[in-house]
C-alpha cells in the first residue's frame, strides 16, 4: 500500500515538473501536441470505422450463429439465393440442427399520408424476426397464419418510414396503407437501428411472403429467388448443416456435379468486400501514426540534449535511473494525453465530414460512431503512443551519465553520438514510411487520371436522369407503355429547355439492379449463355449519345404487332453471334423462349463501372414486351429510368420537371434527379475515397518528415558550431560548409529512400483493388515519389545549411 501511495506521489511531482518544463518551452510543447493530435486523431477515426464495420457485433441475438448459405460453381461464381421450393424443403428437414428464414427485396410504391414514394419492400418468411431475435418497438411481428394467402394483408414499417411517411404517429397501428395499389394493415414498427437486409438496399417495409409480388406462381415455383439465412443450433458443427444442405441441393439440381454448398458467417459475408479497403486505410493510418511518433521522439531527443546539464546535475545528486526514466515518461504521457484530447476532436470532425460517403459505401455504417468502446481504445492508444515516442529518449537521458554533462567543453557535446544516431534513425524511418504513402498517393492520382479519361461510349453533358416507378396493379388491365410511359415522354419532350427524352430500364452507371437472361444455343453458339437484358424506348441512343455501329435503333414501327427485334452490343456479336455482320440474325432467350431478330449493333459502353469491361447485352423495345412476358413486370414498370437531354444546365430544370411529371401522371413515384456527370463521379467513389485519404495522409507524412529533417539538421548544426568555426578558421569557405550539411541530409534521405522503396513495393499491393491503368509496381511512380521527397528534403535542409555557412568563425569558437 505504501508503495502505491509513493508511486502516486512521485507521479504527481513528476507531472508538476513536466508542466513547468512545458511552460519554459511553449513552442516545443505546442508543436509536439499538434503532431500527436494529427497522428492520434487519424488513428482514432480509422479505428472507429473499422470497429463499427468489422468488429462490432450485429444487433441480432447470438449473431455468431447466423450464417449465409453460399452456392459455389465450378467457375468460382457464388450466389446467396435459392428457389422457394428448395428453401421450404430446408426448413422442413433441418429443424433438428438449424432454423431457416428467407427474404427478398423488390421495389414498390407506398401511398402514405405524406404522399406516394418509391420504397424498398422486403417479402419475408414469418419466422425471420424471431430467428434474428428482433421485436418491433410498436405492435407485433408476423404470425404463422399470416402466410395463408387469404389472410388480410399486413405490413411492418421501418423506423425511418414511420417517421418520414407517418410523422411518427403512435396511432399508426391498424391504419391502412396502399403498397402497389394493394391495401395493407400496419401491425408494427421496427427498431431504429434495425437493418435487414444489411446490404446496399435498405428495407423500408416488410410484408409476408404470401402477400408480395414475388410469391411463387403455381406454374412457375422457381421463378423468384430468395435470400436464405440460417441460425445454427448451439453445439452443431457447420459441416453437419453443409452436408445436409448439399444433399438436398443435389436433389433439386438433378446433376452429377452439383454446385458446392457452404456456410459463411453472416457478418463475414457483409464485410468481405470492404475488408481489403479498410485494411489498406488502416495501414496508411498506422504509417502516419508511426511518422508522428518518430517525429516527436526526435523532438524529445533534442530536448534531452538541451537539458544535458540538468540531467547531469540530477544524476550527480543521486537521482536513480528509474526515477529519471519515470520523469521523462511522465512528460511523454502528458503530451500524449493532450494529443489524445485534440485527436478526439479531429476524429469526430473526420467522421462528420465523411459521414455521407461512409454511409453509401460501407455496410452497417450506422455502427460508426464514438462510444465507450472507442474511448477505451483511445486510452490504450494514448499509453502506447507515449511509450512509442518516449521510451528511447527516456533511456538515453537516464544513461547519459553526469560527468559528460557537467563538462563544458565542445568536445563532450559533439562527442555524444548516441543522440545523433537515434535521431538519424528516426529521420530515416520517417523518410521510408513517407515514401510508402507518397507512392500510394501517386498510384491513386494516376488511377484517378486514367478513370477520368476512360472513353465511356456515351455523353455525360446536359444529361439528367431519374427513376420512375408505376403501381403495377393500377395498370394490370392495360398496357403500361401506352397508358403511362408514352404520354409522359410526349409531355417531357415539349418542356422548354428539353432537347429529347427516352426511357430505359437501366441507365449507364446508375442501375440499382440488372437482369440476366439465358440465351439459348444457336447456329453461332456452342452452348447456352447468359446476357444482360434491358428494355428501352425509341430514341434512347440519341439521348445518351451512343454510336450505332451498324443497323438502326428502335423506332415507331416496332410495336407489339411487328416481329420482335433486338439491338445488341459488339461484345454480344463477337461472343454469341459469331462476329461479322449480325444484322438479321436471330437468337432465343428467356425461361419462356422468345425469338428476337437483330436490327442494330451499338458500340460497347461502360454500363456497370468505369473499371469493368463491357459485357454481352441486348436491348428490347418497351413497346414489344408483351404482358405475358416474365420480364414485363420486373423491368418495364418497376425499374424504369428517364433520361433527359437538355439544352440548358440540367440542375436548373429539376423542380419544373418534377412538377410536370406529377401533373401528367400523379400515380408515378419519382426518384431523385441526378446528372450523368454525377453518376460518373459516384461510380468511382471508392477510388476517390482511397485517393483522398491516401493523398491527405501522404501530404501529412511529407510535412511531418520535412519538419523532422529540418529539426535534426538544425540541432546538428548547433552541436557542431565549434567544429564549423574551426573548419572556417582553417580556410573552409561557405560552399564547403553548405556541402557538408547537405551531404549529411542527402545521406539520410538516400538511406530512407532505399528503405522506403522496399516498403512501398510491399504496401502498394494493398491498393491493387483500387488501381486502374497502372500497376502496383509502376516504375515511374516508385521512382518519382522518392525523387520528389529528396528534392523537398534538400529544400528543407538548405535553411540550416545556409545558417551554418553564415557563422562567424570567431563567434563560433567562443560559442562554448
**DSSP summary, beta strand count:** 24
Q: Categorize the overall geometry.
A: elongated
Strand content: 15-25%
Point out poorly predicted stretches: 408-415
Oligomer: single chain
Q: Write down the Rg.
A: 34 Å
Main beta-sheet strand count, sense and barrel state: 7 strands, mixed
* Cα end-to-end separation: 49 Å
Please characterize this protein's 3D structure:
With 816 residues, the protein is α+β, with helices and mostly antiparallel strands. 50% of the residues lie in helices and 17% in strands. The chain contains 26 helices and 24 strands. Strands 15, 16, 17, 18, 19, 20 and 21 form a seven-stranded mixed sheet that branches. The protein is elongated and about 105 Å long.
Question: How would you describe this structure in keywords?
Answer:
816 residues, alpha+beta, 7-stranded mixed beta sheet, 6-stranded mixed β-barrel, 17% strand, elongated
Q: Summed up, what is this model?
A:
It contains 26 helices and 24 strands. Strands 15, 16, 17, 18, 19, 20 and 21 form a seven-stranded mixed sheet that branches. Strands 4-5-10-7-9-8 form a six-stranded mixed β-barrel. Strands 13, 14, 22, 23 and 24 form a five-stranded antiparallel sheet that branches.
Explain the layout of strands and helices.
Layout: H1 2-24, H2 26-55, E1 66-72, E2 78-79, E3 82-83, H3 84-93, E4 98-112, E5 115-124, H4 128-132, E6 138-139, E7 154-157, H5 159-166, E8 176-179, E9 182-189, E10 205-208, E11 225-232, H6 238-253, E12 260-265, H7 266-271, H8 275-306, H9 308-316, H10 321-353, H11 355-361, H12 372-398, H13 403-406, H14 410-415, H15 417-452, E13 463-469, H16 480-493, E14 498-504, E15 515-519, E16 529-536, H17 540-544, E17 548-551, E18 565-569, H18 570-576, E19 586-589, E20 594-602, E21 617-621, H19 631-637, E22 640-646, H20 654-664, E23 669-670, E24 674-675, H21 676-683, H22 685-719, H23 721-729, H24 734-763, H25 779-805, H26 809-814
Parallel strand pairs: 5-10, 7-9, 16-21, 18-20
Antiparallel strand pairs: 1-2, 1-11, 1-12, 3-11, 4-5, 4-8, 4-11, 6-9, 7-10, 8-9, 13-22, 13-23, 13-24, 14-22, 15-16, 17-20, 18-21, 19-20
Amino acid at each position: 500500500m505504501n508503495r502505491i501511495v509513493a508511486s502516486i506521489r512521485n507521479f504527481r511531482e513528476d507531472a508538476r515538473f513536466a508542466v513547468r518544463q512545458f511552460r519554459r518551452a511553449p513552442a516545443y510543447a505546442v508543436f509536439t501536441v499538434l503532431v500527436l493530435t494529427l497522428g492520434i486523431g487519424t488513428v482514432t477515426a480509422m479505428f472507429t470505422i473499422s470497429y463499427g464495420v468489422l468488429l462490432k457485433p450485429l444487433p441480432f441475438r447470438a449473431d455468431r450463429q447466423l450464417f449465409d448459405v453460399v452456392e459455389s460453381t465450378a467457375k468460382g461464381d457464388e450466389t446467396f439465393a435459392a428457389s422457394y421450393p428448395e428453401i421450404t424443403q430446408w426448413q422442413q428437414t433441418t429443424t433438428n440442427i438449424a432454423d431457416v428464414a428467407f427474404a427478398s427485396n423488390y421495389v414498390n410504391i407506398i401511398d402514405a399520408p405524406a404522399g406516394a414514394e418509391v420504397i424498398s419492400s422486403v417479402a419475408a418468411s414469418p419466422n425471420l424476426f424471431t430467428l434474428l431475435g428482433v421485436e418491433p418497438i410498436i405492435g407485433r411481428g408476423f404470425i404463422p397464419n399470416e402466410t395463408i394467402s387469404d389472410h388480410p394483408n399486413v405490413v411492418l414499417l421501418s423506423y425511418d418510414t414511420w417517421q418520414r411517411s407517418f410523422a411518427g404517429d403512435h396511432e399508426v397501428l391498424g391504419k391502412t396503407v396502399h403498397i402497389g395499389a394493394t391495401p395493407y394493415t400496419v401491425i408494427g414498427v421496427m427498431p431504429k437501428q434495425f437493418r435487414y437486409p444489411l446490404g446496399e438496399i435498405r428495407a423500408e417495409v416488410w410484408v409476408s411472403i404470401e402477400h408480395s409480388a414475388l410469391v411463387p406462381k403455381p406454374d412457375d415455383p422457381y421463378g423468384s429467388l430468395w435470400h436464405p439465412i440460417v441460425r445454427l443450433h448451439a453445439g452443431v458443427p457447420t459441416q453437419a448443416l453443409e452436408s445436409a444442405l448439399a444433399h438436398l441441393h443435389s436433389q433439386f439440381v438433378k446433376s452429377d456435379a452439383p454446385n458446392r454448398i457452404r456456410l459463411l458467417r453472416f457478418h463475414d459475408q457483409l464485410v468481405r468486400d470492404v475488408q481489403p479497403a479498410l485494411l489498406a486505410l488502416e495501414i496508411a493510418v498506422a504509417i502516419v501514426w508511426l511518422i508522428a511518433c518518430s517525429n516527436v521522439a526526435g523532438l524529445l531527443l533534442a530536448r534531452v540534449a538541451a537539458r544535458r546539464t540538468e540531467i547531469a546535475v540530477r544524476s550527480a545528486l543521486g537521482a536513480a535511473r528509474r526515477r529519471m526514466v519515470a520523469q521523462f515518461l511522465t512528460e511523454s504521457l502528458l503530451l500524449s494525453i493532450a494529443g489524445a484530447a485534440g485527436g478526439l476532436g479531429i476524429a469526430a470532425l473526420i467522421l462528420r465530414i465523411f459521414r455521407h460517403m461512409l454511409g453509401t459505401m460501407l455496410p452497417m455504417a450506422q455502427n460508426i460512431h464514438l462510444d465507450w468502446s472507442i474511448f477505451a481504445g483511445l486510452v490504450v492508444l494514448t499509453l502506447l503512443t507515449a511509450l512509442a515516442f518516449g521510451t528511447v529518449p527516456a533511456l538515453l537521458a537516464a544513461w547519459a551519465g553526469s560527468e559528460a554533462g557537467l563538462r563544458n567543453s565542445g568536445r563532450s557535446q559533439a562527442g555524444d553520438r548516441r543522440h545523433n544516431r537515434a535521431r538519424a534513425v528516426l529521420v530515416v524511418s520517417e523518410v521510408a514510411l513517407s515514401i510508402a504513402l507518397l507512392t500510394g498517393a501517386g498510384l491513386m492520382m494516376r488511377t484517378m487520371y486514367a478513370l477520368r479519361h476512360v472513353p465511356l461510349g456515351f455523353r455525360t453533358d446536359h444529361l439528367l436522369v431519374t427513376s420512375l416507378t408505376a403501381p403495377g396493379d393500377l395498370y394490370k388491365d392495360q398496357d403500361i407503355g401506352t397508358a403511362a410511359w408514352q404520354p409522359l415522354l410526349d409531355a417531357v419532350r415539349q418542356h422548354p429547355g428539353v432537347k429529347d427524352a427516352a426511357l430505359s430500364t437501366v441507365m449507364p452507371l446508375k442501375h440499382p439492379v440488372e437482369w440476366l437472361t439465358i440465351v439459348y444455343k444457336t447456329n453461332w453458339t456452342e452452348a447456352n449463355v447468359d446476357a444482360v437484358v434491358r428494355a428501352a424506348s425509341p430514341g434512347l441512343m440519341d439521348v445518351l449519345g451512343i454510336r450505332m455501329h451498324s443497323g438502326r435503333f428502335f423506332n415507331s414501327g416496332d410495336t407489339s404487332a411487328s416481329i420482335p427485334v433486338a439491338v445488341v452490343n459488339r461484345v454480344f456479336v463477337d461472343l454469341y453471334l459469331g462476329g461479322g455482320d449480325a444484322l438479321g440474325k436471330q437468337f432465343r432467350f428467356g425461361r419462356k423462349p422468345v425469338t428476337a431478330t437483330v436490327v442494330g449493333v451499338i458500340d460497347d459502353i461502360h454500363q456497370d463501372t468505369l473499371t469493368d469491361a463491357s459485357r454481352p447485352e441486348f436491348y428490347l423495345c418497351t413497346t414489344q414486351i408483351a404482358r405475358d412476358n416474365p420480364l414485363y413486370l420486373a423491368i418495364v414498370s418497376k425499374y424504369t429510368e428517364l433520361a433527359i437531354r437538355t439544352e440548358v444546365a440540367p440542375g436548373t430544370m429539376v423542380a419544373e420537371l418534377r412538377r410536370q411529371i406529377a401533373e401528367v401522371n400523379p400515380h408515378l413515384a419519382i426518384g431523385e434527379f441526378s446528372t450523368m456527370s454525377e453518376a460518373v463521379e459516384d461510380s468511382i467513389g471508392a477510388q476517390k475515397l482511397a485517393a483522398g485519404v491516401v493523398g491527405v495522409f501522404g501530404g501529412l507524412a511529407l510535412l511531418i518528415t520535412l519538419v523532422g529533417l529540418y529539426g535534426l539538421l538544425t540541432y546538428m548544426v548547433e552541436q557542431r558550431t565549434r567544429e564549423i568555426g574551426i573548419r572556417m578558421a582553417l580556410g573552409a569557405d561557405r560552399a564547403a560548409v553548405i556541402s557538408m550539411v547537405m551531404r549529411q541530409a542527402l545521406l539520410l534521405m538516400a538511406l530512407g529512400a532505399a528503405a522506403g522503396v522496399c516498403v512501398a513495393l510491399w504496401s502498394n499491393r494493398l491498393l491493387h483493388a483500387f488501381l486502374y491503368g497502372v500497376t502496383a509496381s509502376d516504375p515511374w511512380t516508385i521512382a518519382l515519389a522518392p525523387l520528389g521527397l529528396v528534392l523537398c528534403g534538400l529544400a528543407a535542409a538548405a535553411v540550416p545549411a545556409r545558417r551554418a555557412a553564415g557563422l562567424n568563425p570567431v563567434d563560433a569558437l567562443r560559442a562554448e
